[in-house]
Write a structure and sequence with these properties.
elongated; single chain; 75% helix; mainly alpha; 182 residues; 6 helices
């Protein structure tokens, strides 16, 4: 059980670190969008590269922040019954949910996106719009990156659920906070 806890802690640290770095993109996103609006309405001009950078920043923020959201229980959940359950019962539900939904989803995304992303890299796919940022292959690379980070978060969540079910952890949902304390 110590190995499971150590692996879960390490994976949680990866997810948490990526999320804490990526969250700063929200500030960049707001400032960039502000610049786009000011340029358009105050100066009657625009730059397609700046507009596309909003798309790139937004995509990066959400795709790489998805696992962080899962780690810190920020995802949408219907808590009608779940909230009143014991930690052990919640761990069972989450274990089944991760095994039946999250891991298959992430694997399916990885499997199906790989040819699409590889083709984009092979031709160094260019801008979305004429004169835009010539890095669409990097944008598409966020898809497998999201899936890998989601798999990392799911495996850590699975490990914490197993530890809670086995009685070695009070509650699997506390993510990195309890993981660092154990």
């Amino acid at each position: 059980m110590g190995l499971i806890a150590a692996i879960a802690r390490a994976l949680d640290r990866v997810t948490d670190t990526v999320g804490r770095v990526v969250m700063w993109l929200a500030v960049l996103l707001v400032l960039t969008q502000l610049a786009v609006v000011l340029l358009r309405y105050a100066f009657s001009t625009s730059f397609i590269q700046l507009q596309e950078s909003v798309i790139y920043t937004h995509a990066t923020l959400f795709m790489l922040g998805m696992a962080f959201t899962m780690l810190h229980e920020g995802h949408v959940r219907v808590d009608i019954l779940y909230a009143d359950m014991t930690p052990r019962r919640r761990a069972w539900i989450d274990l089944i949910g991760v095994l039946v939904a999250v891991i298959p989803f992430a694997v399916l995304v990885l499997w199906t996106c790989w040819p699409f992303v590889a083709a984009s890299w092979r031709i160094r796919e260019g801008a979305i719009a004429y004169g835009g940022l010539p890095f669409q292959y990097l944008l598409k690379s966020l898809i497998p990156a999201m899936a890998v980070l989601l798999l990392i978060a799911a495996v850590a969540h699975l490990g914490r659920a197993v530890l809670t079910i086995a009685g070695h952890r009070p509650d699997h949902r506390e993510g990195a906070r309890i993981a660092d304390a154990t």
